[in-house]
Amino acid sequence: MGNIVLFMHCSLDGFAAGTKGEMNWIQVDQELFDYVEERIAQTNTALYGRVTFQMMESYWPTAADQPGATKHDKVHAVWYKNAHKVVLSNTLNEADFKNTTVIGKNYASILPKLKEETKGDILLFGSPSTAHALLAENLIDECWIFINPVLLGEGIPVFKGIKEKEKLKLLKTHVFSSGVVCLNYDVQRGN
């Protein structure tokens, strides 16, 4: 049985994106990519909201074939191609995509079953609205939050929709040379 693991960039003041969804403040480099790829390689299931999935679909299927493709582009494109993608959407048709399951309004009952059937974890990449929905249903088991050294002042919050206090247990921290800090937490239910 796998866990649902949230992977999200965050400003120091708690935002996943600017007020219009902008993410140009996120700091990424090969050091961060290598760190994340090591974790991603341990699973083969990705979870996205519709907006993030469409963004991923517009890039990753052909990223490795582009002139000047980076090491990260090549490695992640292979992983993305082979990964089972689960998308929370009420409008997408899963027949339009390879290796993809689209889940609509019944996600709160479907995801626990998917967790039981999945070998390895299910990684939720970005997707603030999806993260908010899953947090409200207590469906996120672990968080990898990448704190970027920037203050946005306002924007889309990382954490929203939590119905009751959730205790987190710090599992690991990692500081990158860029100043980004990864905080890895386990959600402590029933404590």
TrEMBL record:
GO terms for molecular function: 5-amino-6-(5-phosphoribosylamino)uracil reductase activity. Transmembrane segments: none annotated. InterPro entries: DHFR-like_dom_sf, RibDG_C, Riboflavin_Biosynth_HTPR. It comes from the Bacteria. GO terms for biological process: riboflavin biosynthetic process. Residues 4-181 form the Bacterial bifunctional deaminase-reductase C-terminal domain. This is Dihydrofolate reductase. It comes from Taibaiella soli.
